[in-house]
Amino acid sequence: MRGAGVCAILAAAVALPLSPTAHAVTADKTDDKLTAGEILKPNESVKSENGQYKLIQQVQGNLVLYGPGNKALWGTPTSGTTAYATMQREGNLVIYNASNQPLWGTNTAGNPGAYLEVQDDGNLVIYSASNEFLWSRHAYVGSLPSGHTLKTGQWVQSRNGEYRLLMQKEGNLVLYNRADKGLWTTPTGDRPGAYAAMQREGNLVIYSSSNKGVWTTKTAGNSGAYLAVQNQGKVVIYSKDDRPLWSVN
């Protein structure tokens, strides 16, 4: 069993493909992995080796990780429709609806043979075929894609591992260097449970636990924009055609 700690980040996130992997097969329920080409249909699941954590594709559309006591620890924002999950052969974990339209993905394409592992410590990690870290339920590598959120304890890490943008429990979104020195923060403290959303219309917004917007980059009108944490420590919002819209040095 591999630990959750990772020293080096070597892979870049790329665009989500628009069609499911051909010749996908049902997941092997006897192990803790979803390997290249395997799918999870509604009500199907894979478990950690110690049996304490279960990743299940729910009938209502969410892919959810449960821990001890059947407590939900993580889930995809894909409820409201029949859906299935597939670990695609090019490296993306993708949720598709019944019409084979993509609803959500990890943006880890470009890594043929990558696989998803449900770990004994409760982490959910995608590794490349050569066992390099690509994605986890706690961290994004390089960028926060359009439509994705950072909840408390989640972060975006630069590809070289030197910087991370962390959503903290008190409500601030903070940029740290490797020495854990704070370099930049949003003015959103004293809001436990707040989260950051890279909205599909282009705004990065901090929401309170009651879903009230409390801070924004004011970059709306740029559908498909995404946030990047660069190797030099710069945080940038780019349009979908890679024009810089907003930045923090």
From TrEMBL:
Occurrences of domain Bulb-type lectin (ranges): 31-139, 141-249
Record SUPFAM superfamilies: alpha-D-mannose-specific plant lectins
UniProt key word S-adenosyl-L-methionine: no
Gene3D superfamilies: Bulb-type lectin domain
Signal peptide: 1-24
Keywords: Signal
Keyword match Kinase: no
PROSITE patterns assigned to the protein according to its UniProt record, in alphabetical order: BULB_LECTIN
Protein name per Swiss-Prot or TrEMBL: Bulb-type lectin domain-containing protein
